Amino acid sequence: MIEDISAARDVALAAVAGAQTVDLLDQFVAEHLGKRGPLASLKARLGALPTVDEKKAMGQALNEATSAVSAAADAHRAVLAAVERRAQLAGERMDLTEFRRPPARGHAHLVTEAWERLEDVFIGLGFKVAEGPEIETDWYNFEALNMPPSHPARSMWDTLFVEHGAPGSTVLRTHTSPVQARVMTTQEPPIYVVAPGRVFRNETADATHMPVFHQIEGLVVDRGISFADLAGTIEAFTRAFFGSGFTSRLRPSFFPFTEPSAEFDIRRPDGSWLELGGCGMVHPNVLAACGIDPEEWGGFAFGFGIDRMAKEYHGVDDLREMYSNDVRFIEQF
Ligand code: FA5
């Protein structure tokens, strides 16, 4: 009988070891260790054994065989369960690579970036930042700047009027120069300010003109200020903003609020010139209109286009591109 028990145990162990799934394993365990299994039928034969010792020995052999098969089944079940769990996880895995891409980050508008860099450069040169309203009175936009009503120079700016107050008394500011007057009427010299801001003109958009654009104004009022200070400031700013390969020049020009007046151009490393803005020594009439004694104080002012600077800085061909909001264009910067 002991051989029968060993044989039944070996068959059961082989079946358990060969099971490929937990289900099959359970089925084999039930078959081999169950009530109708080979070990159970051997147990039924115990009663027929002649001696108590034999019954005891065979009973013990049967128990050991059953325990061995159970232990082998438990061990194999743990292995199969782990394999099945891994397969299940692999099957349920979701492809989340799309979400692992870093989210696309935007950036400030090219003009805003230029505006902020300009402020940084001028703050580095010792200037403070001032601002004024976009809707201005005729007085600040023109009259304080040495352009009395019906002065012909007013036609230098294609003015947009706002229906407010007396006809023609309120305008969308055509330049940032009114901030000069706002600063001079509220601050005591010495004054060193820049005033970046949005300005408006009744102009048709083209490659170098927008009806809404941005300027930065500079104003210095102090004792003993000369034209050389103006030229030096423009040169220092040009190199700080564009780099040392760039330089500047001044050409005689006319603005009612500066005397003498000039336009300034930036020379690119390839030798070509870009017209950037106007400048000059603050006109004594402007100082006087703002309550500053022109006998004691003098100064210079300048104003130039931020949009054109940003266009130049980034090598953009057409100002209108910068306002098209076309992602294919924006993503290049
Ligand atoms: C003025 O506006 C004067 N206020 C500048 C000034 C300030 C002179 C202080 C003296 C003292 P002007 O109209 O030329 O000047 O404009 C100055 C700059 O603004 C131009 O050189 C150009 O760079 C920019 N600009 C003018 N019109 C436009 C436009 N439609 N679109 C984009 N940029 C423009």
Relevant terms:
binds adenosine-5'-[phenylalaninyl-phosphate]; rod-shaped; 2 domains; BirA Bifunctional Protein, domain 2; 10 strands; alpha+beta; 333 residues
Rg, please? 45 Å
SSE order, one letter for each helix or strand: HHHHHHEEHEEHEEHEEEHEHH
Total strand count, please?
10
Count of separate structural domains: 2
Structural class: alpha+beta
- Give the end-to-end Cα distance, rounded to a whole number of Å: 89 Å
- CATH domain topology of the largest domain: BirA Bifunctional Protein, domain 2
**CATH architecture label of the largest domain:** 2-Layer Sandwich
Question: What's the pLDDT, averaged over the residues?
Answer: 92
Largest sheet: 7 strands, mixed
Pfam families: Phe_tRNA-synt_N, tRNA-synt_2d
InterPro entries: aa-tRNA-synth_II, aa-tRNA-synth_II/BPL/LPL, Phe-tRNA-synth_IIc_asu, Phe-tRNA_ligase_II_N, Phe_tRNA_ligase_alpha1_bac, Phenylalanyl-tRNA_Synthase, tRNA-bd_arm
GO cellular component, one term: cytoplasm
Main location: cytoplasm
3D architecture notes:
Its cofactor is Mg(2+). It is found in: Cytoplasm. It catalyses: tRNA(Phe) + L-phenylalanine + ATP = L-phenylalanyl-tRNA(Phe) + AMP + diphosphate + H(+). Residues 118-310 form the Aminoacyl-transfer RNA synthetases class-II family profile domain. The protein is an alpha+beta fold. It has 2 domains: 2-92; 110-330, BirA Bifunctional Protein, domain 2, CATH 3.30.930. It is built from 12 helices and 10 strands. It has helices spanning 2-18, 22-33, 38-44, 52-92, 97-100, 110-124, 138-141, 178-186, 227-242, 284-289, 306-314, 327-330, and strands at 128-129, 135-137, 160-161, 170-172, 191-200, 212-222, 247-255, 258-267, 273-282, 298-305. Strand 7 (247-255) and strand 8 (258-267) form a beta hairpin. Helix 1 packs antiparallel against helix 2. The two termini are 89 Å apart. The model has no long low-confidence stretch (mean pLDDT 92). Bound molecules: adenosine-5'-[phenylalaninyl-phosphate] (FA5). Adenosine-5'-[phenylalaninyl-phosphate] (FA5) is lined by residues 175, 177, 201, 203, 209-210, 213, 215, 217, 255, 258, 275-280, 301-305, 307-308. Adenosine-5'-[phenylalaninyl-phosphate] (FA5) binds next to strand 6, strand 9, strand 10 and helix 11.
